[in-house]
Amino acid sequence: MTETSGDRLQKVLSDIRKAEEEFGRKPGQTTLVAVSKTFAEEDIRPVLDAGQRVFGENRVQEAMGKWPGLRQEYEGIELHLIGPLQSNKAKEAVQTFDVIHTVDREKIAKALKTEMDKQDRHLPCFIEVNIGDEPQKAGISPRDTDAFVAFCRDEIGLNIMGLMCIPPVEDAPGPYFALLRKIAERNGLTQLSMGMSSDYATAVSFGATHVRVGSAIFGHRDYPA
């Protein structure tokens, strides 16, 4: 019998609950963000039919193309922007998404705040931390994160709910998850967006409140050439 995306969803949810139990966390403390980037509406519907309502997209334009229709079909959808955001897309991002995970520089923070004020739509945000200080990756350096949190939260008034990271792919993720948690704790932040298909159970063990899982649910992803 062929495994469906709904079956894979249930396995991921089961893994999350087992990790919560094993590491003494309350059931349901971790939100699964099903990463539907590059997948079409027909691929997403079975996961919606299986009960999932929280989804992540990388690109504003792609999300604008497929989610308005799905929102009309299904109630309670919560859409998270988990990819890089350009300041010229801030207006559409605030219109389209419910949570932003990738605030990573002052220009973006200011553009989002301006649009949220205009639209009277004050979305919760995560600050993206370049937890391994990798030159090819977006995000604030760990050493600059405290000051950036203060800027976003205290100076311009964004609703900063937590921190997000993607550890270096070649390293064990645990130390990086532990570092993100430490930075969050000293800034009074309780939400941690960390962990993907390869390491979400580990992320739960280090306190993740949001795990971003795509291929473990939807299967192999074909990227446009």
Write a brief caption for the model.
The chain has 225 residues and is an alpha/beta fold. 43% of the residues lie in helices and 17% in strands.
**SSE run:** HEHEHEHEHEHEHEHEH
**What amount of the residues lies in strands?**
15-25%
Low-pLDDT parts are none
Number of helices: 9
**Class inferred from helices and paired strands:** alpha/beta
Most strands sheet? 8 strands, parallel
Question: What is the residue-mean pLDDT, rounded to a whole number?
Answer: 96
State the strand order across the main sheet. Answer: 7-6-5-4-3-2-1-8
- Count of strand segments: 8
Shape: globular
Radius of gyration using CA atoms only: 17 Å
- End-to-end C-alpha gap: 32 Å
| Percent helix | 40-55%
Modified residues (N6-(pyridoxal phosphate)lysine): 37
Keywords: Pyridoxal phosphate
Domain Alanine racemase N-terminal: 26-221
Pfam families: Ala_racemase_N
Write up this protein.
- This protein is an alpha/beta fold.
- It has nine helices and eight strands.
- Helix 2 links the parallel strand 1 and strand 2.
- The relative contact order is 0.16.
- Pyridoxal 5'-phosphate (PLP)-binding protein, which is involved in PLP homeostasis.
- Residues 26-221 form the Alanine racemase N-terminal domain.
